[in-house]
Amino acid sequence: MTVSRSIALMLAALAVTGVGVAAPAFKSWAADSKPAAPAAAPAKAGEPVYREFIQGNPKSKVTVIEYASLTCGHCKAFQDDIYPELKKAYIDTGKIRFVYRDFPLDGLAAGGALLARCAPGDKGKVLIDLMFKNQAEWVRSPSPLEPLKGYAQLAGMDNAAVEACLKNEGIMNKIREVQETASNQYKVQSTPTFFINEEKLEGAQPFEAMSKVIDKAIANAK
Fold it and tell me: What residue ranges in the chain does DSSP mark as E strands?
């Protein structure tokens, strides 16, 4: 599928009632390497470019990567219930490097991911958090693009920036590339999926389960 066709489908999905697509069943596997960071997408002068959403200590020997879809209920559950504990215990204390990556399960999630990647400065992850917090509102809206535009404005994007973003093939292509790499190379098949260094965890894990794996990785990294 071409990038233009992908964007057209995404925009069509944004124009109609929100649809949730269930995450496909997953198979267990042994991760043989930590997922690599995607290369930056080329862009015209002045255009936003794809950037990784990274929090915590950039020099930490322990990296936690989350693959998530903005329309995924389990991803919202993680964001609401587990992530705050994880942030307090490991991200804010500099013990880990936390990376958020998009794995959109439908056109709505792809549209939200695209807007977040266009957000200025460090507002992209803030916009992700806002969309998860208000997931029911925009996913179930008869015109989901309208609340999404409102969230984007709160992140510093005016109407012109939103419209330009929705036509940004470079960022959309990179989102698709990251997802395809996750699916084909790292066997990500459901959301949320986490990598804690080389160890893979599937599903919205309780804090205790993630903490156990993170503490082990920290101990092994010393």
Answer: 53-56, 63-68, 97-102, 193-196, 199-202
DSSP state of 37: P
Q: Are 181 and 34 spatial neighbours (Cβ–Cβ below 8 Å)?
A: no
31 near 186, Cβ under 8 Å? yes
Domain assignments of the chain as residue spans, ordered by start: 48-221
Q: How many residues does the chain have?
A: 222
As a three-state string, the secondary structure of 163-205 is: HHHCCCHHHHHHHHHHHHHHHHCCCCCCCCEEEECCEEEECCC
Give the span between the Cα atoms of 158 and 103, in whole angstroms: 26
pLDDT of residue 39: 56
Is the pLDDT at 26 greater than 50? The verdict is no
Predicted model pTM: 0.82
Q: Which fold would CATH assign to domain 48-221?
A: Glutaredoxin (3.40.30)
Task: Give 145-193 pLDDT, tens digit per residue.
Answer: 899 999 999 999 999 999 999 999 999 999 999 999 999 999 999 999 9
pLDDT at 38 over 70: no
Residue 101's nearest CA partner among 196, 30, 192 is: 192
- 63-68/97-102 β-pairing: parallel
Helices 145-154 + 123-133 axis angle, to 10: 140
Cα atoms found within 13 Å of the Cα of residue 129, Cβ hemisphere only: 13
C-alpha torsion angle, residues 46, 52, 55, 56 (rounded to 10):
-110
